[in-house]
Write a structure and sequence with these properties.
Elements (H helix, E strand, L loop, with lengths): L1 E5 L3 H8 L6 E3 L2 H6 L5 H12 L5 E5 L5 H12 L5 E6 L2 H12 L4 E6 L2 H10 L3 E4 L1 H6 L4 H14 L5 E4 L5 H10 L3 E4 L1 H6 L4 H17 L3
Parallel strand pairs: 1-2, 1-8, 2-3, 3-4, 4-5, 5-6, 6-7, 7-8
Helix pairs in contact: 4-5, 5-6, 6-8, 8-9
């Protein structure tokens, strides 16, 4: 299972990239707004900076909502770096745009997926990734992990090449369950990635090892 970081923060991306465990990045307009970058020229320069620091795919979301503006914006963004994936919302215009980009061999990530039928439509249109938001489903008492299982079965039944990119991950249980289900990618916020290393028994064991060593070693 690949791990992406879900952020637009340059320093977070650099830090996790140094660990050697991150396979890509996902961003969205909300994450970009947190970095207080609002000028169009600065946004595109920032995208280029991020992409040059990451070895894998970087999902960049279009700001447009209609078909022709999505094409114009997406084609421009795709030219910035070879590892850019155009992030497209699950709408009628979005599906049309995904089909267009697929015909041009431009990678896409269909975002804001909340049903298996939406995922099916995106896959049929030729999306490279679909992004089910499992945490947001859990927030309204719908089992997001069950959605991932449904999409996994459907994609397997019909041999779709579209990858499942689980998003809106809220806790380590989500991550572990995604790995068991066999989703292709999980995108995680920075704090969750950094907490994956932690376990109280690891900390206590290391403390004991060092204590035993320091009590017995003679310099």
């Amino acid at each position: 299972m690949k791990l992406f970081i879900d952020t637009a923060n340059y320093h977070q991306i650099i830090k996790v990239n140094e660990l050697g465990i991150i396979d890509g990045v996902t961003t969205n307009p909300s994450l970009l707004a947190r970095e207080k970058i609002f000028e169009v020229k600065e946004i595109y320069q920032y995208y280029e900076l991020l992409c040059n620091k990451v070895r894998g795919d970087v999902s960049i979301e279009v700001m447009s909502n209609n078909f022709f503006d999505m094409l114009k914006e997406g084609e421009f963004i795709a030219k910035i770096c070879s590892n850019i994936v155009i992030k497209i919302p699950m709408t009628i215009d979005g599906i049309r745009a995904i089909r267009y980009f697929a015909s041009k061999n431009i990678k896409t990530n269909c975002t804001l997926i909340f049903s298996s039928l939406q995922a099916l439509l995106a896959a049929k249109a030729g999306a490279t990734y679909v992004s089910p938001f499992i945490g947001r489903l859990d927030d309204i008492c719908i089992d997001g992990l069950s959605l991932l299982q449904e999409i996994k079965i459907i994609f397997s039944n019909y041999c779709f090449d579209t990858k499942i990119l689980a998003a809106s991950i809220r806790n380590p249980i989500h991550i572990l369950s995604c790995a068991k289900i066999g989703v292709d990618v999980v995108t995680l916020p920075f704090h969750l990635i950094m907490n994956l290393y932690k376990h109280p028994l690891t900390r206590l064991g290391l403390k004991q090892f060092l204590s035993d060593f320091n009590q017995n070693i003679k310099f």
